[in-house]
Design brief:
This protein has 333 residues and is α/β, with parallel strands linked by helices. The chain contains 10 helices and 10 strands. The protein is elongated, with a radius of gyration of 24 Å.
Length: 333
């Protein structure tokens, strides 16, 4: 059953060891994004996100709902997989920033392999991205890389058919099967064989599945970083506030909150804000940025409209500054 539950609203009081909560409010689901930069679009794919589990090392907190950079961990993962045709979240229903389908493993709490099976049953694409809901630094570029990895031959058969899966490894070289892309047919085949061999999927570890697939392995330590403890959450929150990351994180969070799918040259906007503040007055910077956004939207939106409006406003600010302290007078006869 397809469901979209918008998130947001005033945050409920928080006590130590509990997840922040909120009251849902209406919002339009944004269109899927293709990610940042000029990279080619990946092949069609669906996504399965596992958002269950007891979060024992977090004291039973609602881990997918914990926020990093103002966004729930689950929403951050959904944004990275926004190009999916269908996204299935396996776990308890909750407000989300994007359109998803919901599923539950049978019986609830029967483990990640059973959860993957429940999600996979609701997908139809030949390629499936499988993710956990606690990856704060996963982005669309990594998802594209995983999908591209499916086109490579597996290391144990370099002259053979393409790989059946592409998985990230952690800094210790261990496979992370919940940060991966798979071909759906072999994934379904191996799940069916495991269910027949063990009389069901309850309690089976994911390594039984990946051990039977021909995999390509990739190393992206940051993208594979997951949040299992409060120390992990604190480390993730600290990192996104570092000087080299905070601006991109903030812009991404604002776009996600406002339902905007727009890649713009932030350098242009920062230059405009600097010129408006320097040549006119400091309060002119945010007000000018607002007016540029309004003008771009009125012109149909898009990166080109933003760049055009920003360029015109910047030139106006420079002309304004050139007049500072000078008075034009007609030439003496």
């Amino acid at each position: 059953m397809t469901a979209y539950e918008p998130r947001g609203g005033p945050e409920a009081p928080r006590t130590p060891g509990t997840a922040p909560g909120g009251s849902p409010h209406g919002r339009t689901a944004p269109a899927p994004a293709a990610g940042h930069g000029p990279a080619a679009a990946p092949p069609a794919f669906d996504a399965v996100v596992l958002a269950g589990g007891g979060a024992k090392r977090l004291g039973g907190a609602d881990k997918p709902g914990l926020r990093v950079g103002g966004r729930a961990l689950l929403d951050r993962v959904l944004a990275a997989a926004a190009g999916a045709g269908t996204t299935v979240v396996v776990g308890g229903r909750r407000p989300t920033a994007r359109l998803v389908e919901w599923a539950r493993e049978d019986p609830p709490g029967s483990g990640p392999l059973a959860a993957l099976h429940a999600g996979l049953r609701r997908t139809a694409a030949e390629r499936v991205v499988v993710l956990s809901a606690d990856l704060p630094f996963l982005d669309a570029a990594t998802v594209r890389r995983l999908l591209t990895g499916l086109e490579a031959p597996s290391p144990d058969a370099p002259d053979g058919p393409p790989a059946e899966g592409a998985v990230l490894t952690d800094p210790d070289g261990r496979d992370q099967p919940l940060v991966a892309a798979y071909r759906a047919e072999p994934l379904r085949r191996e799940i069916a064989l495991l269910a027949a061999e063990h009389g069901g999927l309850t309690g089976l570890p994911l390594r039984l599945l990946t051990g039977e697939l021909k995999l390509v392995r990739m190393s992206e330590p940051l993208a594979s970083f997951d949040c299992d403890t409060w120390e992990d959450i604190a480390a993730a929150r600290s990192r996104i506030r570092e000087h080299g990351h905070v601006l991109d994180e903030w812009i991404t969070a604002v776009k996600d909150e406002l339902g905007i799918e727009l890649d713009v040259d932030t350098t242009v906007l920062l230059d405009l804000a600097r010129d408006a503040a320097h040549e006119v007055a400091r309060p002119a910077a945010p007000l000018t940025a607002f007016l540029v956004g309004y003008a771009a939207a009125s012109a149909g939106g898009g990166p080109e409209a933003v760049a055009d409006a920003a360029g015109r406003a910047a030139r106006l600010a420079l002309r304004w500054g050139e007049e500072d302290g000078r008075e034009e007078r007609p030439d003496a006869g």
